[in-house]
Amino acid sequence: MTDAAISIQGLGKTYKGGKRALDGVSFDVPRGQIFGLLGPNGAGKSTLINILAGLVNKTEGRATIWGFDIDEHPRNAKVSIGIVNQEILFDPFFTPVETLEIQAGLYGVPKGQRRSLDLLRAVHLEDKANAYARTLSGGMKRRLMVAKAMVHSPPVLVLDEPTAGVDIELRQQLWAYVRELNAAGVTVVLTTHYLEEAEELCDRIAIINHGRLIANEPTRELVGRAQEKIVAVTVDRDVAAPPANACFQKIALVGDRTLEITYDKSRVNAGEVLGAITAEGLGIVDVSTKEPDLEDVFLSLTRSVA
Q1: Is this model's pTM higher than 0.70 or not?
Q2: Which residues pair with 188 in a beta bridge?
């Protein structure tokens, strides 16, 4: 057995026509973590997830799920993972409880071991257990998809854009449930376009762009890679035009007396930036800073290899 929940080595996929969707991607998802898999649209995330789900055949490389090679032990690999796709897929003429019972049957879960009502309760759908699934709202359908992925109690759960189109309250409920699953030992792989969610939830983040892995680091270390920093300086009098200085990457006038300055913290420090302002004869009344976040890093990395 490996310490990785998912291990991917040199994974590649070339579609008919020559489109290269994945190009030698290698990384491990540590057991017990919430792992973020990020990238722009078309970067190759869904292809990678569909390979793990057995829906797309890889061109080269190797992947294991919970220690089971997806080619050598496909049945064990599939039983070890639950996947919530972006698309909402289930029969609209079944009720939620019937949907979960059928899914559990497909995975060979004995009737006495099925947890359909417990799962519906966990995703706040107990009161909709016997309603037709087609009558559920978009947010309810997404939560039903999460419950459906957990019917066989897999040790790994993949959530592909699970909160797209979900309102804030339902999103918070979903993340609370994900945290509960993770605390109970489930390894979670998350793709999302809400970067603030990834920054808050994920222990580690990998970023894919144009089919290649361009980052794979603990979240705090990844955020720490951002070199740009922004400082807002309020001065003691009206400013007609923002002053220029070599230590500023950008400077903008955002009010009669407030200057917003972007600088590279690897080249200069905040003291030098403020010194450049006072050198213009301006008195400083107030200073506030904006710390870099995951969005800054994401944009920097994906633009640099675009």
Answers
A1: yes
A2: 34, 157
